[in-house]
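Predict structure. Chain length: 241.
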Amino acid sequence: MDCNILFLIVEPKIHMFGGAYLDMGETTKAQLAYQRASSYILLSQFYLRSPRVDFLKQLIRSLSKVKSLPEELAKIKGILSNPDLEGLSLELRKDYTRLFLGVKPGYSPPPPYESVYRGENRLMGTYTLKVAEWYNKWNFDPAGVLGYKGPPDYLGVELAFMSHLCMLESRAWERRGGYSVKSILEAEGGFLKEHILVWAEQFFNIMDREARTSFYKLIARLSRKFLKLDMEYIEELLREL
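Prediction complete.
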């Protein structure tokens, strides 16, 4: 999946109404769905991948190709201009471990699993099973796609599932894949409303407050903004159908 696209679709409404990033007259809905899929998969990587030097270099290459960046990404680009990438990576990996791996109470916030943040306060709860049912229904295999074998309600995996749905949507706009556009858009909106949007904002707020690096504070704000705007975009498309 091309990681560059996030920087073109962070604010979907800009594209819909002729903003600076894309000329909507030349962009089909299938292409936009593909770009949203790419955005979701890259967002998922911030939560799934430790920020080692190779990942930081990948981000630098992606950001360097875009002239106009939203505020959060412009600031991230500035952080990545640090000539000591090894030192930066070490600092970010410490924050990544503390924020996402639930090292211990008092040191780490609760890790970003839906079951933890929706009142069950444990892994592999009821919401874990509900999320797994969504994955099964839409033929999404986290182990096969991501090499991930943990609980399926982890934030990074839920974002990757949204990428999967957007890819199905892209094919549906071109009448490929066997699903209707409406059914997939309803699935996208349903999963956001029933799952991610119910709990993830609470985690983003904690992440923004608890992060010890500006990098992860900005990722929290970027994630929150993108999900809100993408939900609005999905609802607008459904009104048009």
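Summary: Residues 1-26 have pLDDT under 50 and may be disordered.
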